[in-house]
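[#protein-structures] MJ: dropping TGS domain-containing protein here for a structure pass
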Amino acid sequence: VQEHGGEPIIPFSCALERNLADLPDDEAAKYCEENKIQSALPKIIKIGFSAINLIYFFTAGSDEVKCWQIRKQSKAPQAAGAIHTDFETGFICAEVMKFEDLKELGSEAAVKAGGKYKQEGKTYVVQDGDIIFFKFNVSGGGKK
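AK: finished. structure tokens for TGS domain-containing protein:
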């Protein structure tokens, strides 16, 4: 391993992963629990993302949560641009909460009440797993 850069090695079984993928989620979870095993896919994805310098962030509305991928060290306007170029062009600010805070506190309102909902500017470096609401303004009234 050290001869080849010392990168992580993740053992996995293609047959197991294929079988788990063919099962409904609840049956796959039960199978893993009964056999004291786990899928290697989450670890493969996480290490793979890290190896190619990617992170992800989330946007959420009342009816949808979406995951976006960006390069590590991307600033908030560039993250907004991953959604739409107009979001980057007209970037005002990013309202950010950490996934772990949302998980721990249970709701956006609780995160806000706990003082963990932050408004960030153009220099904010997006962190892996951030949940972001972008504010932007794109004026359509250009001169002719």
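MJ: nice. Helices lie at 14-22, 25-35, 41-51, 76-83, 85-89, 99-105, 108-113.
AK: one more thing. DSSP finds seven helices and five strands in the chain.
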